[in-house]
Design brief:
six-stranded parallel sheet; 9 helices; Gfo/Idh/MocA-like_OxRdtase_N
Length: 346
Amino acid sequence: MSERTSGGRKLRAGLIGLGAMGRNHGRVLSGLDGVELVGIVDPAGDPNGVLRAPVFPALEDLLALGLDYAVVACPTALHEQVGMELARNGVCALIEKPLAQSVEAASRLVEAFETAGLVAGVGHIERYNPALQNLRIRLEAGELGEVFQVVTRRQGPFPHRIADVGVVMDLATHDIDLTAWVTGQDYSSVAARTVSRSGRLHEDMVAVVGQLADGTMVNHLVNWLSPLKERSTVITGDKGCFVADTLTADLTFYANAAIDTEWEALRAFRGVAEGDMVRYAIPKREPLLVEHERFRDAVEGKESDIVTLRQGLRTVQVAAALLESAAGGSTVTVPGRSTTGLEVPA
């Protein structure tokens, strides 16, 4: 435990932004063991008045209280400005996804927090979904054998609160991060098509075909145009396929058949023979609470699994490659990494 929290003192946390996600962060922070939510920044105040912490119009008012860390849940376009100010003041930060709206801005945030020696993470909440955490363990154990393909579908109604980025930098970053994390593989190339049908400046639908470093095929379908809310990840491999529903945190395995189908007509109709289907019973804790617990532990100096800024930068890189591909109608090679871990041009 660090000096700051020795003697049982609670970590002093601040929250920047009281939008839909910010209110959820505030709810969790208000009841998080070992943490005191000491203040909030939002120019619009807290009209609902549900959080028992003072609300300030400007970040300097919050910094004056003395913080151990802050959660950044303001619009993406402000992440760099707010994050840089926190780094300059020696405050650790959990920054909502995406890390920033551009590769350049994300790179500057990585450099600022690393130079200052501060703990910082990105709120890619899907990593803490029970279904995906269980799936990752099973993939690492070789239960699927060789992985052939990762397919994600993420769709639902347009969120009017988001105006500064499109569906690629917002929703699709969930799928980019979870795919790389679950498989343990970087993206090597992507091809994407986008459309805008809601009259907004940014795209609201994207279809992606990609490839990971080990040759695994990737497909993402993401949109803000459907009344159906869907969050599905399907990973197919040589022993069958896993289906994770992150709305319900259910994980199901469909095995390839070990017994041949003797009924010829059925075999012709079904193609690959079906085996057992198993839906796993797994503990289901709230992903946002787990994310906060992990970050709190990291700030206290404990070993903890958080999404680092450098990992968040990598996700922004892939998202930028998707936008480049959609604009140019071509397949784009995703920049690789140098031996020092720094992203380098392809």
